[in-house]
From TrEMBL:
Protein name: ornithine aminotransferase
Similarity section: Belongs to the class-III pyridoxal-phosphate-dependent aminotransferase family.
Membrane-spanning segments: none
Species, as recorded: Nocardiopsis eucommiae
Required cofactor names: pyridoxal 5'-phosphate
Length: 404
């Protein structure tokens, strides 16, 4: 091909919809926590595909599983069984202590699945009349980009001009359990929340929030659906972010790292009393549960339960926390983290989040802004302590430059 980074950017800008505003970095290869651009410049990947690349780039175990399956059979549709499906769904359900799995592809599809299942459950089990179901959600949420999901977004950018919206959602402030209680009535079928809000800037709720939500859901016979698409599968140092407070929701939604960074794989995982409401013909996807997803998915489960990933996330999460705490005050207004996942609020007088990301990329570190002057970091869970420290040194360097 012989195209330069500038050529690639020009081509992408002129021939693709402008639905993102990427940093001017054209990635051509990845290994572990590092990626390389077209000209051979290396960057430490501290975004990891919004946690889709938890196991790092070019992970040998995942590649071996994918290669082996590609040589056998890749897609069958659910019109038939395939020999990877049963072993995958059973291992995934067992890993999180649930009975059943409904496999899809993207995170948004898993959320749509959660909404549909909750409504059907409300109709068939709780007796909520058809068309009356309500679901309580949290403000500043991010659950995806479909028409129904943006209907309960509080981000005007995600919403404006895309109406009419899907009715049936009530939004209350994140972290406020009492507001959830007040929003629930006889029509309420579910509470849908992120155990840690990712896109909002890695917002970790107080320790009593999720346990209170659990109690409220139990008292009102409402399903507690945890969107663990970004928080789950090792990011916080545990398989489920809900584990930190010992909470067991009625359903988990997983995505991103569920496909090992190889292909899009998502799922709703719950017990039979919930997922049993879905019968043939009522919900599905041509690609959901395909043999390649099953082969990669079994490897993901094995890696999470046997591999060093959780331990590394916990250990280096402490390093990350210590160093971020030390940053606060010198151009950094506040920082919070859980596992290898951090939100850093930079002094808005110094730089916007976007400007900071651009500067960091020039120094060889890739992160992503969320809103205002907040950036989030979510490096692959395979990152070494030296590399993490190197990335944080670059962060300190950029802040110092901005303050000079
Ligand atoms: N839920 C959460 C919590 C997310 O962070 C995201 C993606 N950032 C999604 C759902 C949507 O996932 P996808 O982009 O794969 O549709």
């Amino acid at each position: 091909q012989g195209l330069s980074s500038a050529d690639h950017i020009e081509l992408a800008q002129s021939r693709s919809a402008h639905n993102y505003s990427p940093l001017p970095v054209v990635i051509a290869e990845g290994r572990g926590a590092w990626v390389t651009d077209v000209e051979g410049k290396r960057y430490l990947d501290c975004l990891a595909g919004y946690s889709a690349m938890n196991f790092g780039h070019h992970n040998p175990d995942l590649l071996a599983a994918a290669h082996a399956q590609i040589d056998r059979v890749t897609l069958t549709s659910r019109a038939f069984y395939n020999d990877q499906f049963g072993p995958w769904v059973s291992s995934l359900a067992d890993m999180v202590g649930k009975e059943k799995v409904l496999p899809m592809n993207t995170g948004a599809e898993a959320v749509e699945t959660g909404i549909k299942v909750a409504r059907k459950w409300g109709y068939e089990v709780k007796g909520v009349p058809e068309n009356q179901a309500t679901i309580v959600v949290a403000g500043a949420n991010f659950h995806g980009r479909t028409t129904t999901i943006i209907s309960f977004s509080s981000d005007p950018e995600a919403k404006t001009g895309f109406g009419p919206y899907t009715p049936g959602f009530r939004s209350v402030a994140y972290g406020d359990a009492r507001a959830i209680e007040e929003a629930i009535d006889d029509t309420t079928v579910a509470v849908l929340i992120e155990p840690v809000q990712g896109e909002a800037g890695v917002i970790v709720p107080s320790a009593d929030y999720l346990p209170r939500v659990r109690e409220i859901c139990d008292a009102n016979r409402v399903l507690f659906i945890a969107d663990e698409v970004q928080s789950g599968l090792g990011r916080t140092g545990t398989i489920r972010a809900c584990e930190h407070t010992g909470v067991v929701p009625d359903a988990y939604l997983f995505g991103k790292a569920l496909g090992g960074g190889i292909l899009p794989v998502s799922a709703m995982v719950a017990d039979e009393d919930v997922l049993g409401v879905i019968q043939p013909g009522q919900h599905g996807s041509t690609f959901g549960g395909n043999p390649l997803a099953g082969a990669v998915g079994q490897t993901v489960v094995r890696m999470l339960t046997e591999g060093p990933y959780l331990e590394n996330a916990r250990k280096l999460g402490e390093v990350l926390r210590r160093r971020l705490d030390a940053f606060v005050g010198d151009g950094v207004v506040s920082a919070r983290s859980i596992g290898l996942w951090a939100g850093v609020d930079v002094d808005p007088a110094l730089a916007s989040g976007k400007e900071l990301c651009k500067r960091l990329a020039e120094h060889g570190v890739l992160v992503k802004d969320t809103h205002g002057s907040t950036v989030r970091m979510s490096p692959p869970l395979v990152i070494s302590e030296d590399d993490l420290n190197w990335g944080l040194d670059r962060f300190a360097e950029v802040i110092a430059e901005l303050r000079a």
